[in-house]
Amino acid sequence: MPTAPPEIKDGAIEKGWILYDGDCAFCTNWVGFWSGVLRRHGFGTATLQAPSVQERLGVSQEQLLYDIRILTQDGKLVSGADVYLYVWRRIWWAWPLYAIFSLPGFNGLMRLGYRWFARNRYCISGSCRIPH
Predict the structure, then answer these.
(1) Number of domains composing the chain
(2) What's the CA gap between 51 and 113, in Å, rounded?
(3) What is the pLDDT along the chain (132 residues), one digit of tens a residue?
(4) Parent domain of 83
(5) Can you give the pTM of this predicted structure?
C-alpha cells in the first residue's frame, strides 16, 4: 500500500483515493453526495488542496487543479475523464456506464464533455474566477 497523505489515510480504503477540487462548489457537492457509495466500494475522498497531496503527487499547483484524480492503492495516478471510467469499472451496478463510455465514439464525447466542464466548473458552480 502506498503511503497516502495523512489527510486521506484510512484502513478501509481498498481501491484508492479520489482527489477533487475543494474550491469548486459543484465538485464538493457532487463528491459529498456520492461519498457514502464511494466509501462502501473502497474509495476514499480528499481535496486536491489538502496540505500533503501536492507533495505526494509531485505536480505543480497549476497542474494539480487541472483535473479530478485518483491515487490508486498501488500508487498509480489516474486523471480526468479516466477517473469516472476507473470508478465505474469497479462498482458492479455502474459497470454498464463503463462499458458504454469505453466505446470509441462515446469515449470521445465523454472526454470532450469532461474537458469542457473542467474548464468551466467555477462558473457552473457559481464561483466564477473571471474578473468583472
Answers:
(1) 1
(2) 30
(3) 344 554 545 556 789 999 999 888 888 999 999 999 999 999 999 999 888 788 888 887 778 888 999 999 888 999 999 999 999 999 999 999 999 999 999 999 999 999 999 888 878 766 555 554
(4) 6-124
(5) 0.82
